[in-house]
Design brief:
Blueprint: H1 5-16, E1 21-26, E2 29-33, E3 47-51, E4 54-58, H2 62-70, H3 75-89, E5 92-94, E6 97-103, H4 107-121, H5 124-148, E7 154-159, E8 172-177, E9 183-188, H6 191-206, E10 212-217, H7 225-233, E11 237-239, H8 244-259
Parallel strand pairs: 9-10, 10-11
Antiparallel strand pairs: 1-2, 2-3, 3-4, 4-6, 5-6, 7-8, 8-9
Helix pairs in contact: 1-4, 3-4, 3-5, 6-7
Length: 262
Amino acid sequence: MSVDVQKVQAQLADAISARVRLEPLGRNTYRLITPFGFDDGDSLVAFMEVTDGHARFTDHGHTLMHVSYDVDITREARTKILDRVLATHQLKFDDGEISTECDLTAVATAFWDFVQGLLHTADIAQWRVERAASLFFEEFALFMEQRIKPHVPTVAKDWHDNRVDESGLYGIPWACLNGGEPLFVFPILTTAHCDQAVISCLKYETADYKFKSFAAFEDIDKINSRPRNQLLDIGTKTVTSFDAQRRERAARLILDHFASPA
């Protein structure tokens, strides 16, 4: 099926309020030239393939590959960010490639979603934030495995007691158990993590469950004062950041719990 290039160019340009040029690459395949690009000045790479009255927009995997030059993309970060982008803009993702398909009569709307999806994926700042989050939790897990686990009979990740929380909705990120009063351990990066720690502790407290709690903040100054104060009111011991010095204090506070009489 032949494509009215001028008509499609006009529709795409109207959709994103910017100039668009279709550069023929072969039979019914076009490179899309737009003014959009990455932070380093490189242009977004996008293509349109036309078959039997349908258009397919694709980046041929270029966007995510380009992002990986600037940040170390973890599987968790990629899943979290891409799931959000794909759901918002109704795009497909397969083996690194972002794409969408539509009828030729609906190219404007599909192209707008496609470009917005690429721009959001190309936002380096969000990847750096997710990477920082991933590193914090990786470092905390290593701390628990290497510094705490050898000295505590049981260190359980994503733990809950079925007698209180049968569904596991109020899961404890780390629980240190020795047969007596358990210690619930919370790594906290964001206000949402702090809120969840408060909710989980209150769930067990309401059930008259005997426990102590400890929280390691990545940076306490980033946390809203309300849940932060609630966590302290519960009696949670804390370290205000997780630098090398405070990791040593965190280890002492956790292990002191088991050195003290139950």
